[in-house]
Amino acid sequence: MTVTANPRLLIFDLDGTLIDSRQDLCNSVNATLAHLGRSALPDAVIASYIGDGASMLIRRALGDPDQVEESHLNQAISFFLDYYRIHKLDFTYVYPGVLEALASIRGAHPTVPMAVLTNKPVHPSRDICAHFGLDRFFFQNYGGNSFHTKKPDPHGIQTLIAEANALAPNAEPITPAQTVMIGDSDVDILTARNAGARSLGCTFGLSPHALAAAQPEATVDSPTEWPATLFA
After folding, report:
1. What is the mean pLDDT of residues 105-134?
2. Which positions, given as ranges, span the membrane (predicted)?
3. 53 and 103 share one domain
4. Which of 161, 210, 165, 207 minimizes the C-alpha distance to 181?
5. What is the CATH number of the domain that holds 53?
């Protein structure tokens, strides 16, 4: 199943799409809960909270946000970010096949720009991509604090389309319909839909349970399927 004919811009989610960061995120949340004198949560529960940025992750881990004082919440978020900044690479790894798939796409389609759009804060996102050598494939990497809104708001995709067009000012402008968002959660699929772009769902990621309901144009079970699915 193809996503769209001749895509001209590829935008990748990070957590659950390019990297498996589940354990480091879970450990950082539980370290935050321990710091606050709270009981740890099962990793599976924390993993189900991932996808909407650090602030929402901590809000969900703390339970009903209406029962948490704002100062207490801000303290928890700050501790989490500080802890995660140190421990973000303890167990995180690039999914098998990602580097090879990106290299294949770059080799076969060198004029197609690729970027990262994640709800993770931008600095750890860029640090992680640089650590694993992913950054060489992407002309831009935007995080959840790069704009005034996060995914599924379309602003990030719209900005990346504009920037990709600026890279080749003499070429026919890239349209949303020629843009594909690749991600593992309903948030990514909704972001694409809100921007008028196409979507490719990754069932191997952190939120496969949410993909079916979100109805991406196509799905893959491994990063090795990206080249053939995107450019069939």
Report:
1. 97
2. none
3. no
4. 161
5. 1.10.150
Of the pLDDT bands very low, low, confident and very high (cuts 50, 70, 90), residue 2 is: low
**H/E segment holding residue 182:** strand 179-183
14 & 111 share domain: yes
Tell me which residue of 164, 170, 120, 158 sits closest to 139, measured CA to CA. Answer: 164
Query: Is position 169 within any domain?
Result: yes
CATH classification of the domain holding 116: 3.40.50.1000
Query: pTM for this structure?
Result: 0.94
By residue range, what is the domain housing residue 71?
22-87
Burial class (CB in 10 A: 0-12, 13-18, 19+), 19: buried
Let me know whether 162 and 198 are in one domain.
yes
Q: Which two tokens stand for residue 138?
A: 């992407």
Do 82 and 150 belong to one domain? no
Give the Cβ contact number of residue 227 at 10 Å: 19
pLDDT attached to residue 72:
83
Contact (CB, 8 A) for 29 and 88: no
Q: How far apart are CA 110 and CA 44, in angstroms?
A: 39
Amino acid at 102: L
Provide the 8-state DSSP code for 143: -
pLDDT score of 207: 84
72 and 107 in a single domain? The answer is no
Are residues 143 and 109 part of one domain? yes
Q: What is the distance in angstroms between the CA of the first residue and the CA of the last residue of the chain?
A: 8
In this structure, the number of other CB atoms found within 10 A of the CB of residue 80 comes to 22
pLDDT tens by residue, 207-223: 888 888 899 999 999 99
Identify whether residues 26 and 58 lie together within a single domain: yes
Selecting among 13, 20, 184, 186, the annotated active-site residue is 13
